[in-house]
Specification:
- There is one protein chain.
- With 536 residues, this protein is an alpha+beta fold.
- It contains 17 helices and 28 strands.
- The strands form eight sheets. Strands 1, 16, 17, 20, 21, 22 and 23 form a seven-stranded mixed β-sheet that branches.
- The chain is globular and about 65 Å long.
Length: 536
C-alpha cells in the first residue's frame, strides 16, 4: 500500500500517557498515539494507504485477524473448511457480531463488499488482489457482471468462496481490510459521502472511530460495545494525531502528550541507548516512479542515468539513521524461501549494476539519452508528500541529480499525501517519490503493482516478459518454479528500471515501556490495538 517515505517482523511494542485514566483492573484506559500522515479515507474499497488501512484494521473485522508476525488468528470465522483442490473455501461465521448501526454482520455483507470492490464502477485501485477468485479478472476487466464473482452466502452465517486457482497466500489476504465486510444499508445511505468521515462510516471491529471530518489531523478510536470479543479489548480510547515533524512529536512525547514518537535521524542516533527506544522493521520500499507516458521517462538510458546518480547510502542517512539502502524492490526479512531470504535470491548483476552509485556511468547513460532524445537539457519535478522525511529525500535527490547530470534541472513539489496520491493516480506528475508497504508477507505484493494492466501501475510500465513471469508465478503448481518466476520478474524490472528502488526504512521510535501488546506487522495494515493495554 502507498505510504509516506518514513514507514516483516512483527513486534509487541511498548508505549502511556499522563492523561490516561485509571481502572479497577490496574491498567489505564487511554492511549495517545501518532501517525505520520493523514487518513486518505475509510471506504475499504477505495483506500490505498497504510494510515487508512490501520484505521480500518482496528474499526473493522474480517474472516481473520493478523496477530504477531502476521499469524492468522480468529476473526468472524469460527470454522474454515477447504476442498481437496483448495479451490472451494467455506467459512462459518459468528452470529453475535453487530455493526455500529445495530445490524447483524452476516455472510451477505462479505458478498456485497467483495462484489462492490471488483465492480469497475467503484474505481477500486486494489481490485486486482481478488485475482484468483472465480471470475474476478473478467469482472475487473468489464467482461462479466459483479454478481458472477465466486462468492455466495448460504444463510446468514455461511460464506462460500470459489477460486479459479489455488492461491498460496489466501489466508493472509483474508486478514487484509480489503476483504472485510461492508454494510450495504450504510453505503447506500451515505452514497458518495460513505467513508469520507467518521460519521459517514459504520464499524464492526474492536473500536469505533470518532471525530475525523475528512481532512482534520486528529481523531479518536473508542471501544465498540457491539464487538463480539469486547471483553478482550482493554482500552476505552485511543487518541490519534498526525505529526509530520519528528522534532515536534518527540517534544509531545517528552511532555506526556504522546505515548510514542517517531524519531528523526539525529534523535535516533542520540537516543538509541535510552529506555523506550524501539526499532520497527517495515516491509516497505521507497522508490522512484517515473511517468513513462512522458518524455524523457520513456527513455531507458535516462532512467538508468537517474538511478546511477543516486548514492543510496547517503540518501538513507539523510532521511533517518536506521534506513537501509535498497538494491532490491522487495525488502529483506519479509519472505523466506527454503531457509534463505528471498532478496538473497534476487541479488545479482542487474541489481548491483543499476542500483549502485556510479557517477561516470550515470553521465555516460545521460549522454546516450541526450542523443536519443535530441535534447541537451531536461526539466522535471519530483512529487513528494509534505512530511519531514519526504521533503529531505526530495531535497537530496534534487541536489545529487543536478550535480551529477549537467543539464538536468529538478524541482521538488511537496504536497499533502492525499493530494499527492490523487496526482499520481491520475498520471499528473513527472517523478513520484513512492513508498509501498507489502499488503501481506509475499513479494507478489510488490511485483503485482507494475504489471501492464494493474490499476496501481501509475508510471505505466509495460514489459511483456515481466508480465508473463508474474502471471506464470500465479498458476504454476510448483513452488520451486513460482519462486524462480518471481525472482526473474524482480530482476527484470530492476534491469529495465521499471521502478528505481532507493531504500528500506526501519523506523526508530521512543515508546513508553508501560504500554503492552500493541501488535506491529511490517506488512499489511501495520497496527493491531485490539489487545493493547497500559500498565500502571
Amino acid at each position: 500500500m502507498a505510504v509516506g517515505v518514513v514507514a516483516l517482523a512483527g513486534a509487541a511494542l511498548a508505549a502511556c500517557g499522563n492523561n490516561s485514566s485509571n481502572s479497577s483492573s490496574g491498567t489505564k484506559k487511554t492511549l495517545n498515539w501518532m501517525d505520520k500522515t493523514e487518513i486518505e479515507g475509510m471506504d475499504l474499497s477505495k483506500v490505498t494507504d497504510a494510515t487508512s488501512f490501520t484505521q480500518l484494521n482496528n474499526t473493522m473485522e474480517g474472516l481473520y485477524r493478523l496477530g504477531k508476525n502476521s499469524k492468522v488468528e480468529p476473526g468472524l470465522a469460527t470454522k474454515t473448511t477447504t476442498s481437496n483442490d483448495s479451490k472451494t473455501w467455506t467459512f462459518t461465521l459468528r452470529n453475535n457480531d453487530k455493526w455500529s448501526n445495530g445490524d447483524l454482520v452476516t455472510a451477505q455483507d462479505f458478498v456485497y463488499s467483495w462484489r462492490r470492490t471488483v465492480d469497475p464502477s467503484t474505481g477500486s485501485q486494489y481490485s486486482y488482489l481478488f485475482s484468483g477468485v472465480k471470475n474476478a479478472d473478467a469482472i475487473v476487466a468489464g467482461k462479466k457482471k459483479p454478481n458472477t464473482l465466486g462468492v455466495k452466502a448460504e444463510g446468514k452465517d455461511k460464506l462460500v468462496v470459489t477460486l479459479d486457482k489455488r492461491i498460496p497466500y489466501f489466508k493472509l489476504l483474508m486478514g487484509f481490510p480489503l476483504f472485510f465486510p461492508q454494510n450495504q444499508k450504510a453505503v447506500e445511505q451515505y452514497g458518495k459521502s460513505y467513508g469520507t468521515s467518521s460519521k459517514t462510516t459504520v464499524y464492526n471491529g474492536p473500536f469505533i472511530q470518532k471525530g475525523w471530518t475528512g481532512s482534520n489531523l486528529s481523531w479518536k478510536l473508542v471501544k465498540n460495545k457491539n464487538y463480539w470479543d469486547k471483553k478482550n479489548v482493554k482500552l476505552d480510547t485511543i487518541n490519534f494525531s498526525v505529526q509530520k515533524t519528528p522534532s515536534t512529536d518527540y517534544n509531545l512525547y517528552q511532555s506526556g502528550k504522546l505515548d510514542a514518537a517517531l524519531l528523526g535521524p539525529q534523535a535516533s542516533k542520540q537516543l538509541k541507548n535510552q529506555k523506550g527506544y524501539t526499532l520497527r522493521k517495515t516491509s516497505l520500499t521507497v522508490y522512484l516512479e517515473m511517468n513513462m507516458k512522458k518524455k524523457p521517462f520513456n527513455n531507458e538510458n535516462f532512467k538508468k542515468a537517474i538511478s546511477l546518480a543516486i548514492d543510496r547510502k547517503e540518501l538513507a542517512n539523510s532521511v533517518g539513521g536506521t534506513a537501509e539502502p535498497a538494491d532490491t524492490l522487495s525488502p529483506e526479512n519479509m519472505t523466506e524461501v527454503n531457509g534463505k531470504d528471498y532478496t538473497d535470491l534476487v541479488r545479482g548483476e542487474a541489481t548491483k549494476q543499476f542500483n549502485t552509485y556510479n557517477k561516470k556511468q550515470a553521465q555516460a547513460f545521460w549522454k546516450k539519452a541526450q542523443q536519443e532524445l535530441g535534447k541537451k537539457s531536461v526539466n522535471f519535478a519530483i512529487l513528494t508528500y509534505d512530511d519531514d522525511a519526504s521533503k529531505k529525500a526530495g531535497e537530496y535527490l534534487q541536489s545529487t541529480i543536478e550535480s551529477t547530470l549537467k543539464g538536468v534541472n529538478v524541482r521538488v513539489q511537496s504536497i499533502p499525501k492525499k493530494t499527492a496520491l490523487n496526482h499520481a493516480g491520475s498520471g499528473n506528475y513527472d517523478v513520484f517519490l513512492m513508498g509501498w508497504t507489502a499488503d501481506f508477507s509475499d513479494p507478489i505484493s510488490f511485483l503485482n503493482l507494475n504489471t501492464s494492466k494493474n490499476s496501481q501501475n501509475w508510471e505505466k510500465y509495460s514489459d511483456p516478459t515481466y508480465d508473463k513471469l508474474v502471471a506464470d508465478s500465479k498458476v504454476t503448481p510448483s513452488e520451486t518454479k513460482r519462486w524462480d518466476d518471481l525472482v526473474k520478474a524482480e530482476q527484470r524490472i530492476i534491469s529495465t528500471q521499471g521502478v528505481t528502488p532507493l531504500y528500506h526504512p526501519e523506523e526508530a521510535w521512543m515508546a513508553r515501556p508501560s504500554v503492552k501488546n500493541v501488535i506491529y506487522n511490517g506488512a499489511g495494515a501495520p497496527y493491531n490495538f485490539k489487545g493493547a493495554y497500559v500498565a500502571n
